[in-house]
Amino acid sequence: MPELPEVQALRVFLDDHLVGKEIARVLPLAISVLKTYDPPVTALEGATVTAVARHGKFLDIAAGDLHLVTHLARAGWLQWKDSFPATPPRPGKGPLALRVVLAGGDGFDLTEMGTTKRLAVHLVRDPAQVPGVARLGPDPLDDSFDREAFAALLTGERRRIKGALRDQSLIAGIGNAYSDEILHVAKMSPFKLTSSLSKDDITGLYTALRTTLTDAVERSSGLEAGKLKAEKKSGMRVHGRTGLPCPVCGDTILEVSFSDSSLQYCPTCQTGGKPLADRRLSRLLK
After folding, report:
1. Are 138 and 172 a contacting pair, CB within 8 Å?
2. What is the DSSP letter of 63?
3. What angle do CA 244, 249, 254 make, to 5 degrees?
4. Shortest CA distance to 154 belongs to which of 204, 213, 216, 211?
5. How many CA atoms lie less than 13 Å away from 80 in the CB half-sphere?
6. What one-character-per-residue DSSP string does 119-140 give?
7. What is the rounded end-to-end Cα distance, in angstroms, of the chain?
8. Residue 227 φ then ψ, to 5°
9. Which of 20, 36, 71, 89 is the most buried (most CB within 10 A)?
10. 6 closest CA partner among 178, 130, 123, 137
11. Using an 8 Å Cβ cutoff, are 213 and 140 in contact?
């Protein structure tokens, strides 16, 4: 799933390629992709793109008084095209979900692999009209998001820190991959309870959060859309690296699997050498 660093890189890429250009056609090609119907997507045709913004994991393309807001979900992606075939694609065929063609002939496709269709596109007059945007917590890379702001968010929370970091209503933009990375840098168990965090724990976790996300954004900066997935994967320390050696201590990276996701961690760096039980309601083995 694209998370804050990749979506930020897409925002920068699209800002360079879209702003100031006229939208010629918008073609929805999957019934499931459009989450709004008024105004219709044809209202974008003839409008000029004025800005591209990011809200957590959401991309926001502003044109005229409208906003095309996209969430790529787990299997969605954006593919830039310098040109398109003269014959429009057939709806419902393959991973293609939506096509935006500019007056100059270039543009982009939104695609989604797999059978679970969660890619979402909203056309609204205000991004806050999108429920997922409206409920977002603060952006962790915003200048106002300091250590004190982070500590205040965790006050009163009583859950595992892994889940707290992934909660978009608490902090916007962090998903499964970067929460694994942040916790590895912080040398913290993903099952540690937020209510048990000391002041030093919070300071270390905040520092890990900011440095991990900032480094990932810097690595992705300037890359073409098609190269972002590979960059994300190559930069991971523990996420998606089950069975490989930890780049810090050399121990074997372990995994905990759930019904629809998994987490990866280093037992030496994060759990005092003790493995986490690999079952849904597992607790740290003692």
Report:
1. yes
2. E
3. 40
4. 204
5. 15
6. -EEEEESSGGGSHHHHT----T
7. 33
8. -105, 0
9. 71
10. 178
11. yes
pLDDT in tens, 232-248: 778 899 999 999 999 99
Partner residues linked to 76 by β-bridges: 112
Q: What is the pLDDT of residues 62-76, one digit of tens each?
A: 999 999 999 999 889
Q: Read off the pLDDT of residues 186-195 as tens digits, 9 standing for 90 and up.
A: 999 999 999 9
Cβ neighbours of 26 (radius 10 Å): 22
Query: Do residues 56 and 50 lie in contact, with contact meaning Cβ atoms separated by under 8 Å?
Result: no
Q: Is the pLDDT of residue 282 over 50?
A: no
Residue 229 pLDDT more than 80? no
CB 79, CB 58: distance < 8 Å? no
Burial degree of 92 (CB within 10 A; 0-12, 13-18, 19+): exposed
* pLDDT at residue 285, rounded to an integer: 42
Of 180, 158, 172, the residue nearest 270 (C-alpha): 180
Please check the confidence at residue 26 and state whether its pLDDT lies above 80: yes
Structure tokens at 235: 């930069």
Of 57-61, 87-91, 108-112, 276-280, minimum mean pLDDT range: 276-280
- The answer to whether residues 224 and 13 touch, using CB atoms and an 8 Å cutoff, is yes
CA distance 26 to 98: 7
Identify any residues that bridge with 71 across adjacent strands, giving them in sequence order: 58, 120
Instruction: Write the DSSP symbol of residue 60.
Output: E
Structure tokens at 190: 């993903």
**Do the beta carbons of residue 217 and residue 201 sit within 8 Å?**
no
Quickly state the pLDDT bin for 278 (edges 50, 70, 90).
confident
